[in-house]
Amino acid sequence: MVDSMDTLTRQVRTLALESGAALVGFAPMSRFDNAPPENHSRTMLPSAKTAVVIAVNQLRGTLKAVEDGCYRGA
Question: Is residue 26 within 8 Å of residue 52, measured between CB atoms?
Answer without folding.
Answer: yes
